[in-house]
Specification:
mainly alpha, Tetracycline Repressor, domain 2, 0% strand, Arc Repressor Mutant, subunit A
Length: 197
C-alpha cells in the first residue's frame, strides 16, 4: 500500500494543514511544509491535493463533511423543538471538534481561496437540516410564521456567533459555555414560539 493510501492520512493532513493555516496564516501554509509537519514525503501530499488551492478545497469540504455527519446523528423524535435544539448542540460540538477547519469554513483565513461550486454545495447541504427542522416546528404549531428560511437564518446567526465567541475565548465568564449556548438559542427562538416555553 502506498503512503497516499494509508487509512487516516488524508484526515491527518487536513487537520494539520488547518492548524498551520490558523497559526501561520495563508503564506505559512505550503504542501512541502505540511508534508514535513506530518512526517511524510511530498509525493502523497501532491498526489492527494495537487496544489495549495486543492488542499484548501479539500479542507473546506472535509470541514463541512464533518459538520454534516454530526447533524445527521441528531435523531428525529416526537418533539420537533427538542430536535431543533439538538441540531444546535451538534453544530457547536462539530465546531469545537474541528476548530481550525471551522475557521476556514466560515472565516477569511485564506482570502485568495474560493470554495467553488462543489464547496458551496457542501456548505448548503449542512444548512438545509436547520431549515427543515424549523419547518417541522412550524408544521407542528410550535413555531409561528410561514418562512422557515428567515427563522433558520436568525437561529444560525446566534449559534454561529456564540461558537465564534467560544472558539476565540471571548465569552464573558458567566458560566459553562454549553449552558450559555443553550440559553442563547432559547432567547433566539423565543420570539417565534407560538406559546411561552
Amino acid at each position: 500500500m502506498s503512503t497516499a493510501d494509508r487509512p487516516g492520512l488524508t484526515d491527518r493532513l487536513v487537520d494539520e494543514a488547518a492548524r498551520i493555516l490558523v497559526e501561520s496564516g495563508p503564506a505559512g501554509l505550503s504542501l512541502r511544509r505540511l508534508a514535513t509537519a506530518c512526517g511524510v514525503s511530498t509525493m502523497p501530499v501532491y498526489t492527494l491535493f495537487g496544489d495549495k488551492q486543492g488542499l484548501l478545497a479539500a479542507m473546506h469540504r472535509e470541514g463541512f463533511r464533518r459538520l454534516g455527519a454530526a447533524l445527521e446523528q441528531v435523531a428525529v423524535t416526537g418533539d420537533p423543538l427538542a430536535d431543533l435544539t439538538a441540531l444546535g448542540a451538534a453544530y457547536r460540538a462539530a465546531a469545537l471538534a474541528s476548530p481550525h477547519l471551522y475557521a476556514l469554513m466560515f472565516g477569511h483565513m485564506a482570502p485568495d481561496f474560493s470554495p467553488g461550486e462543489q464547496g458551496r454545495a457542501a456548505a448548503d447541504a449542512t444548512y438545509q437540516p436547520l431549515v427543515d427542522a424549523v419547518a417541522r416546528c412550524q408544521r407542528a404549531g410550535v413555531l409561528r410564521g410561514d418562512d422557515p428560511q428567515r427563522i433558520a437564518l436568525h437561529l444560525w446567526a446566534v449559534a454561529h456567533g456564540m461558537v465564534n465567541l467560544e472558539l476565540n475565548r471571548q465569552l464573558p465568564p458567566l458560566g459553562d459555555p454549553a449552558d450559555l449556548f443553550r440559553e442563547a438559542l432559547g432567547y433566539a427562538g423565543a420570539p417565534f414560539l407560538t406559546a411561552p416555553a
